[in-house]
Design goal:
With 366 residues, the chain is an alpha/beta fold. It has helices at 41-55, 67-81, 95-107, 123-130, 148-158, 178-191, 245-251, 262-273, 275-299, 319-328, 349-365; strands at 28-29, 90-93, 113-117, 134-138, 162-166, 195-199, 221-226, 239-243, 302-303, 310-314, 331-332, 341-345. The structure holds 4'-deoxy-4'-aminopyridoxal-5'-phosphate. Residues 1-24 are annotated as: Disordered. Residues 28-358 form the Aminotransferase class I/classII large domain. It comes from Streptomyces incarnatus.
């Protein structure tokens, strides 16, 4: 049988495996930070209508610049982000992973480097590898906050072309204070003109505010967002960014023409018509997240402060054994490879109860 490594693949891909959490068929799946609530029926109806309309024109390519969708996303950001943005400030792609890929294709690439502060969202490093961008793993403190002095030193030493700041951070859950983001932005600009990408995939779940207002006067700052979490539409594959219009122009140098299908654009537009209902679920999930934090602590686990729709808990001498024991009780959580810690996504109250029952039992065994 021919294996990947028998093919003339790029050296940096040899011996590697594809990214992805296990998709196991178990009763309670709390491992990929999805929204547990299916889309409400009126929205399903609206999607059907919009897609039916779009289907009539599928002989044609879609709007290559997704103008209507970007306009509606800009309205959503203006309404919720405390900072006015227009169509020219927003770009959309198939999930924020593709947004990040386009940003690295534009601002990273061979001979260039990107830095992230780990543990963080591991796709940043993988997309760097896929785009030929060198990866630098920056430090964090023991409590998973960013060690600002060490981060500033790393930026001064490596002079990266791209700096990733994930807030709230995945998998740890904690938000990065705006002062830290600003300090890192200044350090990055002092080292060399570079792009700072703030990944706000989970911002709607935060106790704090979006960093969108920081965009004013900072063309080297980008905020990336997604409809996969708060909008409960992970299956849609719609991510977007907000930035200076020049950034939006720049990523168009690398985007594939017609990258966002007419079906995707129609579905996302329907979802944006139902923003208020969808954000109602966010409030429920925030309450459940806070309950998970409180109950996990009451059981005796350590929990990292969470501003996201998931919670990092531990500590375990062997996180993988604990993961398996929780799975044996029908609950799938995530082992991100952070030694001693696991991550659980906030589900419905019933799913969270099942999870809490499982970890209560596991606590007695470990
Ligand atoms: N950023 C972060 C921090 C994430 O956790 C995720 C999803 N797990 C993404 C980006 C990508 O999400 P999507 O491609 O679904 O928008």
């Amino acid at each position: 049988m021919t294996r990947i490594d028998d093919l003339p693949v790029r050296d940096e891909l040899r011996g590697k495996s594809p990214y992805g959490a296990p998709q196991l068929d178990v009763p309670v799946r709390l491992n990929t930070n999805e929204n547990p609530y299916p889309l409400p029926e009126p929205l399903v109806e609206r999607i059907t209508e919009r897609v039916r309309e779009a289907a009539r024109d599928l002989n044609r390519y879609p709007d290559r610049d997704a103008v209507q969708l970007r306009t509606e996303l800009a309205k959503y950001l203006t309404k919720t982000g405390g900072h006015p943005l227009g169509t020219e400030n927003v770009w959309a792609a198939n999930g924020s992973n593709e947004v990040i890929q386009q940003l690295l294709q534009t601002f990273g690439g061979p001979g260039r480097t990107a830095i992230g502060f780990e543990p963080s969202y591991s796709m940043h490093a993988l997309i760097a590898r896929g785009t030929g961008t060198g990866w630098i793993s920056g430090p964090r403190n023991e409590d998973f906050t960013i060690d600002l002095a060490a981060a500033e030193r790393a930026i001064a030493e490596h002079k990266p072309d791209v700096v990733f700041i994930t807030t709230p951070n995945n998998p740890t859950g904690n938000a990065v204070p705006p002062e830290t983001v600003l300090a890192l932005f200044e350090a990055a600009q002092a080292a060399k003109p570079s792009m700072v990408i703030v990944d706000e995939a989970y911002i709607e779940f935060s106790h704090g505010h979006s960093l969108l207002p920081l965009l004013a006067g900072r063309p080297n700052l980008v905020v990336s967002r997604t409809m996969s979490k708060a909008f409960g539409a992970a299956g849609l594959r719609l991510g977007y960014l907000a930035a200076d219009p020049a950034v939006v122009d720049a990523v168009q140098l690398v985007r594939l023409p017609y990258h966002l299908s007419a079906i995707t654009q129609a579905t996302a537009l329907a979802a944006l018509e139902h923003t208020d209902t969808l954000l109602g679920y966010v409030e429920q999930l925030k309450a459940e997240r806070d309950r998970l934090v409180a109950e996990l602590r009451a059981i005796g686990y350590e929990v990292t402060e969470s501003d996201a729709n998931f919670v990092q808990f531990g500590r375990f001498t062997d996180a993988h054994t604990a993961w398996q024991k929780i799975l044996d009780r029908g609950v799938l959580v995530r082992d991100n490879g952070v030694p001693g810690w696991l991550r659980v996504s906030a589900g419905t109250p019933q799913e969270n109860d099942a999870f809490l029952d499982a970890v209560r039992e596991v606590k007695k065994e470990l």
